[in-house]
Amino acid sequence: MSKETPKSGPDFIRAIIEEDNRTGKWGGTVITRFPPEPNGYLHIGHAKSICLNFGIAVQYGGRCHLRFDDTNPAKEEEEFVESIKEDVRWLGFDWGEHLYFASNYFEQIYQWAVQLIKQGDAFVCDLDADQIREYRGTLKQPGKESPYRNRSVEENLDLFERMREGEFEEGSRVLRAKIDMAAPNINLRDPVMYRILKRAHHRTGTDWCIYPTYDFTHGQSDSIEGVTHSICTLEFEDHRPLYDWYLDRIGAHHPQQIEFARLNLTYTMLSKRKLIQLVQEGRVSGWDDPRMPTICGFRRRGYTPEAIRDFCGRIGVAKADSTIQIEYLEHCLREDLNKRAQRVMAVLDPIKVVITNYPEGQTEELDAVNNPEDETAGMRKVPFSRELYIEREDFMEDPPKKFFRLSPGREVRLRYAYFITCTEAVKDAQGNIIELRCTYDPATRGGDAPDGRRVKATLHWVSAPHAIDAEVRLYDHLFTAEQPASIPKDKDWRELLNPESLTVLKGCKAEPFLCGAQPGALYQFERKGYFCADRDSAPGAPVFNRATTLRDTWARVQQKG
RNA sequence: AGGGGCGUAGCCAAGCGGUAAGGCACCGGUUUUUGGUGCCGGCAUUCGCAGGUUCGAAUCCUGCCGCCCCUGCCA
CA of A502: how far to CAs of A53, A268, A461, in Å? Predict the structure, then answer.
């Protein structure tokens, strides 16, 4: 009798959707949308939203739109819409025919603004930005009404039309909703609906010199598209009454807005503004710098869409502010890559080993397993010879008790090769170890001793004459603080950047198998971690990014002392 | 004269009146030609705090405390 493992209930959003489907609220249809502003690259926080919105659409047989909320021509660029599309696709989602732009709705939105003016629900205000702020009041005090609030419908219509015609300067006038200057919710204190921006828009060009605000666009865009569940982050909770007010006055379909807590990650900054700064100030090599929490950064680093999707599914969806430990994401990557990554041997910090009793000039090929977790991955040949490289840290002249690896007089296994015993550590004049001399046991070919004797360690290695040189880039957290976002406002967050977030290793030695590594190819360097061939690789000069290390219990033992 | 949210383990997170799921992390053990993987086991007498209702409360009520968001012509 197999016992059913207790299953988690659906998250609160899916619970709402299931309830809606049960009651037939939307006739069983589920339409969501992912609505980015094309003013930057997507990051892991967006991935949570993408997985949620597209995931729900798939799960409930609905659909998810990709809509660009491009209402601010001052910040938006075509480059960003292309990158966003690429990243959503890479994550494994498909919007089908449903690619939209809020800017496609500008005429309709304009007509709705006219309708609100005619209804006496909107007015053209001549206050400047500072004055509007003053009139708005504070969190604890009500605002006061604009002196232009009671203009006639005719005058408002005339002024608004002339705003559209370009008769007025930027900032000189705005269109505002006439709601309630004493509302406790500040969003309802006669919010701005349209502003004058004499800027070319990446899609509508110079068709417009007035642009609707996000607040006067988002809800209607959802409405036009027939969105049923408009899923967004917590900070928009206060805006919901405003969206409802607009839709009520317009008399249009009301999507149901549901807010969830955005993703935060330890040692990571997910504010778009700050990511833009990192790129613009050259503190990283670009949006896809492998240290960046952007989707393209993770992609270049060696993360897989599967791992990111798995992560997004496992962290859950709720309304409580939360910060996920970055280790959780790393765990999801390891779990995915453990099953699929080709194993390979590469020595990051090489020290030469001479097998003194191995015939000079002799070479042989040994069989290596490509992936012990996947039988179909097959085998490959690895060359062996008298001179090898092993990892410098795998040898200790005077090892502590729990060090199992090579040391004078100790026998270890070279993976898939032979047992070797260290006979001498050759030093230079300064006393640095520059070479190890060992003997091998020919009877242990392949890695097993016929007499059944055991060794406590298996080392990875590379044959010196066959090795190819590689550059390896190691990455650490971009920030030294666990919660970089919570730095006091009077301090510069850039002080928290980790000066050691990137370590470039040159002269690493890899087995010849890696010679033709294609950019994007993923490998497990045995005992070292998961690595991704970088696009900076040149023929014969591969470059690898370390996506993440392997779990390392020895490192933990060492730390404990 | 403020409004809107949220508090279950180190980090996430189920639970929705019947006596604290699961994952990550951590700690043991075991397997292992990766100190990897896998496998087995441990890890909240208690759900922000205090009262109350009830045979019974993380779940209901009251009060308090703490944290987050809101005063862009950003999204």
Answer: 34, 15, 25
Whether residue A165 lies in the annotated active site: no
- CA–C1' distance A516–B54 (Å)? 73
Return the number of other C-beta atoms located less than 10 Å from residue A319's C-beta: 13
| Cβ–Cβ < 8 Å for A173, A126 | yes
Q: Reply yes or no on whether A97 is catalytic.
A: no
Give the CA-to-C1' distance from A384 to B66 in angstroms.
Answer: 64
* Total-model pTM: 0.96
Span CA (A412) to C1' (B11), Å: 39
A397 CA to centre of own chain: 43
How far apart (Å, rounded) are the C-alpha atoms in residues A497 and A440?
A: 47
Summarize the confidence of residues A500-518 as an average pLDDT: 96
pLDDT tens for A16-40 read 999 999 999 999 999 999 999 999 9
DSSP structural state of residue A535: T
- Report CA torsion sign: A89, A90, A91, A92: positive
pLDDT at A3 over 80: no
The interface predicted TM-score of the complex, written ipTM, equals 0.97
Q: List, for residues A521-546, the tens digit of each pLDDT value.
A: 999 999 999 999 999 999 889 999 99
Class of residue A140 by CB neighbours under 10 A (exposed 0-12, middle 13-18, buried 19+): exposed
A262: annotated active-site residue: yes
State the sign of the Cα–Cα–Cα–Cα dihedral A436, A442, A444, A446. Answer: positive
Q: Which nucleotide is nearest to A557 (CA to C1')?
A: B35
Closest CA to A53 of A11, A82, A102: A11
Cβ(A299)–Cβ(A288) below 8 Å: yes
Q: Which nucleotide is nearest to A196 (CA to C1')?
A: B73
Residue A223 near residue A245, CB atoms below 8 Å: no
Nearest nucleotide to A403, CA against C1' atoms: B35
CB-count burial class (<10 Å; 0-12, 13-18, 19+) for A206: exposed
Set A136, A149, A262, A340: catalytic member: A262
Distance CA A141, CA A145 (A): 13
Contact A339, A373 (CB under 8 A): yes
Chain B positions with a protein C-beta closer than 7 Å: 1-8, 10-16, 21-27, 33-38, 67-75
Q: What does the pLDDT look like over A36-55, one tens digit per residue? A: 999 999 999 999 999 999 99
| CB-CB contact of A51 with A312 (8 Å) | yes
